[in-house]
Amino acid sequence: MTFYSLISPYRSKIILVLFFILTANLLSLALPWGIKMIIDDVLIRGDTRLLAVIVLVLTGLLILQMGFNFVRKMTGNVIGERIVCDLREKICWQIHKMSLSSIRTMTAPQILTRITGDVENIRRFIFNDAIESIYAVLSLGLITAVLLWINLRLTLVALLALPLFALMYFRFVPRLKDGYQRARDVNGRLAARINEVLNGIAVVRVFTAEDREKERFSQQQKEMFHVAKGNHALNAGLWTGIDFFTSLGVLAVLWIGGMDVIHHRMTPGGLIAFYSYLGMLFSPLVRLVVINSSFQEANASLNRMNEIMETAGDVPQARSPLVLEQVKGRIEFRNVTFGYSSQEDVLKDITFSVQPGETVGIVGPSGAGKTTLMNLMVRFFDPQKGEILIDGHDLRGLDLTAYRRHLAVVLQDDYLFSGTVRDNILYGNPRASRQEMEEAVQAARADGFIHELTEGYETQTGERGTQFSGGQRQRIAIARAVVRRPAVLILDEATCAVDAMTENEIQKAVCQKMKGRTVFIVAHRFSTIMEADKILVLDGGRIVEFGDHSYLLKKKGFYSNLYLEQFKEDSRYFTAESV
Asked: Which CATH code is given to the segment(s) 3-309?
C-alpha cells in the first residue's frame, strides 16, 4: 500500500484540483505587479483614473483567486476524506482476516493507534499537505520565472541562501524522522502499559503494586519527555536557521536593489515588486519543509499500517471454495496433528468421527488440548498434519464464511459487546423473532434475571458486559448461540461460572433445544457430559479413551479415575460399574 495507490482512484478529481491550483497561482502573481504599476506610473503621474482601474482589476482578480482557492480546498478535503474512509475500511477488513495468533501479538492500543492515530497522520498529510505541496512547487516555479524576468542579478543573489537552506534541511530532517519514530514507539509502549494496568487493576491492588506501577509509569514518562525534548530542539534549530538565512537573503536583496534604485538601474516599484515576489518565494519553501515533516510522519504511519496489511492469516481461503448451503453436522478428524509452534505439538494424531445430531463431551486435564480441538473445528487454525472433514468435505476447501454461518460457539469467558441485552443476544441472528429470542433465553436460564432488570432486554450491558456477573454473561452468551440455530454448537466451559444445579438445567434445556443438531461440550464437571452420546477423553494431546459414560466407567481407565476423583465425596454419582 502506497500513497499513490490511495489516491489513484481519484485521479480525475485530482487533475481538476491541479487546474484550480495553477489558476490560483497565476492570479496570485497579479498583486505585486499591480503595486509596481501604482508606484511607477500612478503616483508619479497622479493618474487617479488609472489608479481606480488597477484597484478594480486587482479586486476582481483577488475575488477570482479566492473562489479558485475555496473550490481547490473543498475538493481536496473531500478527496482526502474519501481516501481516509477507504483506508479505515481496508485496515478494518484486514484485521478481521488476520490470524488470531497475529492479533494476539499486538496490544489493543497498538491496533487502535493504527486505526486512529496513524490514519489521522495520513489524513492530515493528504488533506492539508499533499495538495499544498503541489501548490508550493507550482508557486516556486512561477515566482522564480518572474523574478528572473524582473532582475536576473538580484534573483541570483537571493538564491545564494538556498544552498545553506538545503544544507540545514538535509542535516536535520533525517534526525527528526528518527526522533518522530522513537516518540511514536515510546508513546505506544506507554499506552499499552496503561491499558494492561486498567484491565488488571484488581490484580495491581491485591498485590499492592501501585507504587511499582507509578514508578514504571514515571520512567516511561521521563523517556517520552527526553525524546520529545530532543525533537523540539531539532525542530527549533531547523526553523531558527531557516529564518536566519532567509533574512540574510532579504537583506542582501534590499542592499543591492536599493543601490540599483539610487543609480536608476531599477525603479522603486520594480524593487518593491521584486521584494514582494521574493517573499512569495520563501513562503512555499518554508511550507515544503513543514510538508516534508508531515510526510515523514505520515510515511512512518503508512509503514506501520502496511505491517498489518501484509500480515497473512493462518487459514488461507481456497481458490475455488465450496459453499455449503446446509451443514448436517457430520464431523471427522483424520490423523490430525497441530502445534502453535514448531517445537511442540498440542494435539497428536487425533482421529474420531461424530454423526449428525450427536452430543459429544470432551474432558481431560488442563492443557490436554480441548480448546485447541475446538479452535481447529471452527478453523481458527489449520492442522500441520491430517485433515478435518465436514459432511465428507475437507474443511480447508470450504468457504469459511459460509461454513461458520452454521456454527455457534460459547467460550468460558465469552465476550459481550457494549449495547443492550437484546443486541447481544441477537448478535449472531439479527432477524430472529421475539419468540425465538425468548425461547433461547429460557433455554439458557437467563429469563429470570433479565426480567428483573429495570429495562429488561433494553438494559445496557456496559463495555465487555461489566454490568453483569460472570454467570449472567455466560447465560446471555448461551442464548446468543442458541438463537442462531446452528448446525453445530460448541460449548467450551460455557457454564463454569454458574452453580452445578443451574448448569445441569441449562445443559438439558440446551440439548433439548438443539435436538437433531451436533453439540460439543467441553467441561471439567463430569455431571454436564454424563448423558452425552459420546465422550472423548484427551490427555497430553492424544485421545486416550472414546465412548459413552457407562462404557468408559466399566473400562476403569483414565476417564474412570478422573470421574472417581471428582465425585469421591458425593455418593449420588457412584454406580455399580464405577466402583
From this structure: 1.20.1560.10
